Amino acid sequence: MQGNKVQEQRLEQLPVFYMEQIVRRYRQLATQSLKSHHAGVSVDQWVVLKQISENNGSSQVEIGSSTVKDAPTTTRIIDQLVSKNLASKQLDPEDRRRYMVFVTEKGRQLIDRLLPVVQEYRQIPVLGFSATEQKQLISLLQRMLKNLE
Amino acid sequence: MQGNKVQEQRLEQLPVFYMEQIVRRYRQLATQSLKSHHAGVSVDQWVVLKQISENNGSSQVEIGSSTVKDAPTTTRIIDQLVSKNLASKQLDPEDRRRYMVFVTEKGRQLIDRLLPVVQEYRQIPVLGFSATEQKQLISLLQRMLKNLE
DNA sequence: TTAAAATAATTGCAAGTGCAAGGAAATAAA
DNA sequence: TTTATTTCCTTGCACTTGCAATTATTTTAA
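^ inputs. structure came back:
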């Protein structure tokens, strides 16, 4: 029976299988690290806050596209930052559909304080990787992403 | 000001940044593919169902550990499969804490029907990858995972 | 000028996930 | 035996996320 059996494929041979675990554990690690430093922000909030600071005054869609999050998610995260007084929104007078998003002074201070913390846990997954290996990895990942577009 | 500025790190240099996108798009692709073939099961349900079929009669913790999902998630997915008549649970008479999980005939038929579909979309992310590159990738991912343990 | 289409942001909802807590049964220790 | 610990599974809750629908505004086309 089943003479034409398709070749079996184990989960352990699927890159995505590992990636799911890596992403999950990495997020746990990051969450934990932020918490232990009393960051007061989640991983996503951190990423968006940092991105705002690098594009101060840009719109929510711009923030969203640079962090690769959809519009509703971006809205919600920014609102969380605003309610924590780390960011502020201001209607763009030249296009009243848009909000210009800014980092507050408190937000900037938080960034300065957390930057070294973040830099540190970001290195953990690639501990022991040579520069070449890191580039290789990134390149492979970019190709995968392209395949999925 | 800020003379000792930490070296900036762009999101585009973070492997995890790509992995999140890859995982997300891959899941979308898989979901869509299953739906277009009227699978009637989600991606996670598929993975668990397949895993059950390869370890017929094993307990939920065993299923969970082989798919790397936690106990509550495993319970819920299995219950979904049971309610769809694709799997069945049966108390282990020798250890009445455990349930032995089985694939039903309907479940087995579904697996046979979906296997080629799944095999196909699983190849998409690594299209154009040589065997060597795939091995390299897996190896790098395994090292990352180890770093995170 | 008016109508249609596109864009920015928001809201609501269904579904999934992680985590903590709890119940039942088995095992180990007292 | 009795008690304590461990294991397997389940339940509840808070939180996130993807998706569809909606509003307000701007841009394009008629």
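Chain A has one domain: 13-125. The first helix of chain A runs from residue 15 to 36.
thumbs up if we can close this ticket
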